[in-house]
Amino acid sequence: MLLAGLLAVISLFLRFLRARGDERQQIRWFASASALTFTWILLFEQLLGPRGGVFEVIVASILVVVPSIPVATGITILRYRLYDISTT
Fold it and tell me: pLDDT tens-digit profile of 7-52?
């Protein structure tokens, strides 16, 4: 799983380097939301994971941060009018 995540980050970075204009901005939205989510989850696992009784705090934090990726994707779709995204 770690290898797949690392390859996904490398792929996104390479695409960002080749992108220009609006596409670069779209990748920035997604990358910043992903980085925020990863950092938040890692922080709570390291700081609060070993202690007991903090499950509620972790769940509440994840419920606030994890939706940041779909929200950033939605903002990008609405801002750049990507209503008809094709896979080709």
Answer: 888 888 898 899 888 888 888 888 887 787 777 777 766 666 655 5
3-state secondary structure 46-58: HHHCCCCCCHHHH
Amino acid (1-letter code) at residue 37 = T
87 domain-assigned: no
Contact partners, residue 31, CB within 8 Å, separation at least 6: 12, 16
Token pair in block for residue 31: 């990358």
Structural domain of 17: 2-79
DSSP state of 53: S
In a domain, residue 10? The reply is yes
With 0-12 / 13-18 / 19 or more C-beta atoms within 10 angstroms meaning exposed / middle / buried, residue 49 is exposed
**Number of domains the chain is built from:** 1
Report how far residue 3's alpha carbon sits from residue 58's, in angstroms, rounded to the nearest whole number: 25
